[in-house]
User: Fold this.
Amino acid sequence: MSTDVKIDVLWVLLCSILVMFMQVGFCCLESGSVRSKNSINVALKNILDFVLGAFLFWVVGFSSIFGSSLGGIIGVGSVFSVEGASPVDITFFLFQLMFSTTAVTIISGAVAERLRLRAYLVIVGVVSVLVYPAYAHWAWGGDVEHGFGWLRSLGFVDFAGSAAVHAIGGWVALAATLIVGSRENRFDSPYSLSKSNLTFAILGVFLLWIGWFGFNAGSTGDFSEGVPLILLNTLLASLAGGIVSFFASQYFTQFIRVRYISNGILSGLVAVTASCNIATPFEAFVIGGLGSMVAIWCFRWLDRLRVDDAIDAFAVHGATGVFGLLAVPFVGDWTWFSVSFFQQLGVQLVGGVVVVFWGLVVTGGILFVLNKIYPFRLGLDKERFGLNVEEHGERTELSDLVNEMEYHYQTGDFNPLNPFEPFSEIGQIKEHYNKVLGKVVEEQEKSVALSQIISQERDLLEQRVEHRTKDLSLTNDALREAKEIAEHSTSAKSEFLANMSHEIRTPMNGVIGMASLLEYTELDEEQADYVQTIKSSGESLLSIINDILDFSKIEAGKLNIESVPFDLPAAIAEVFDLFAFRAVEKRLELMYRFDEHIPVMVVGDVTRFKQVLSNMVSNAIKFTDEGEVIAFVRAEPWEEERYKIEVSVCDTGIGIPDSKLSNLFHAFSQADSSITRKYGGTGLGLTISKRLIELMGGELTVSSVEGQGTTFTFWIAVSVERHDPEPVVECLAGKHILIVDNNRKALEVLRATVQQWQMQAVVCEKAADAHAVLSETSIDVVLLDIELLGTSGKVLAEELHALYPGIPLVLSYSLNYSSSNLLEASAFRIPKPIHPKRLREGLARLLSAGIGDHVQ
Assistant:
């Protein structure tokens, strides 16, 4: 068969030897890139793929490529024979055999660490017999006499096998990788798969680099003038690939990675292979750099798609090989081509598309069917243990160590490991593992001895527990009997006190009543003083008795909560009216405020509600020496058409230390024992109040700052008998009212109250401010505290009446204020604490009639 190639036998044989180094390079690259447990399998795969690939190329491949072309599709001829073959023919055969074995070797690394060896040899057979020979015939094959392959006839250029060797191998590798799947934990583990020896992998790159010079230079057929340029272009392209990958590795990983550098160099070599004979050195450098970028983009893209190509065979050979084909029309002297640029680009594009279709689709389909018939994967269990042992039965120090560890795990026999070579890395691991085993055996012996001691102690302890249990049983029976007697006694005492309520209260009420009647008889001064002492002492004693009896009733469970309709605002007003004189005596401001959503008629226990509120207000006045006591009453809808009524009583008194708050609601206790001596009381009021609130389904809480005041807040849930929203009084809406009071809190409460009636409020604390407001602002009514400090409220009232006779004047006063000091010209007068309803009705009458009746 004629090759139509001028052959320099010595040169091509020398290049063939260099290409043979590529087989060694692929073996080193793959062996160093996989785990140690699979390294023997990798080495055997590489040598067997060379043996089988070379044999099949001799039997079938060579004639299929270079035999007489059958319609441009495949070559036909007999097995290559040295009989009658010239040295030139033999030399050409040997060089092309190296190309064929290189194509099948590319696939080996891509599917490493997961294939049966026999399955891999099947793939080698398919590629050696059909895939590579067919495409090589289309690109290179045939002869002048019988015609060329159809791509070569179109003018297709692939000088040294960028497509026929590398691209075909790379795309078949991608197909095989997709079919067999990824290695276990390749993408699902936070750890990278270990490499057996990256230094060995770098050695493989160097050997491939050397082989590539023979690969490209030998394709000339002889040592011509173009060889030096080819060698220079090969070198420059690989250097460009290495430089680009260096910067790409730093950019993407912040480190210099072996994967990036090795792939960059190899992809530069692949990219320039198709055009190394016609490119200028600068063009070769550019092609190598761009090829490196293509490879890096591809293997990063495949990682994102979770495609496991162990040595990035597709990125380096498949994708970059096609790129090298398409780069051909862009380089060299155009006199080299016999067609236009676009025609040549079209032919190269066809060749690239055919590579993809033939290598990925057709070959992928064949491999898919073969995998269904004879599964390629070995199985996860065997892959985990390693292909060296499972596929080849090869023992290593590492496999022996794993086997012995597994034996220890399965049997629990922790005798030391078998003898080992102490100076290897595995030997050092065994040495330290034996030390651990010795410690384990020692601890086992101690554990056995300790277990025996524990067993004896347990038996003794069980006997002691049995005797002790009998003693405790007798003791528990005695305790239970004593507890029942104590509970019965306590219940009897509580029930006695609860039943004595009438018997104790009746004579005390009689004593107080008789003392009251005695006051109205003719008594001298000394007798009247005695009677007053009897009366006040009796009232104090009755209050204490009431607390004790109420507490006893609660403890005995005999206090019942009533549910009757009552007027909520009126009940609150009654409590505050009750304490008005006590507040005046201590010169305290006493006030309360409702929110606008407060219901009128509610269903609950009015007596107990007033009792709790009275206790809160009484305590606030008792422990406050100056300032004010203010109650805020709020309402909000609750569950099942009920309302939550919340009352907060705030004072500016002595406050309670944080350390005392936890004991505040305990029976017969106060924040400090000295308080009882100074202020009096049983210490039961808060306890009773808390129990009453809980019986009414609510909660009582407290917050306090020592020296600044205390706020008690309680809430109860009530049903609403009638919810009359506070009426909007049209004659008040929009009216301007001036409020003068030297108590800032009182001003805030009064302003908020009148604003609920849609009035416009202006407030001031001083007489001078009141004059300024009236001189500058249109005011409809003035509300003045007649006991204004700093100047006599009466003097200010007289001045305002004289200066502004048309503005109605409303005076607020304390109950102990002398009526002779009240200004007769006032529109009406209202006692403190100011009842909101009473104030609203008075203002409405005043502003609707223009002149109001005096309200005493």
About this structure: The chain has a mean pLDDT of 82.
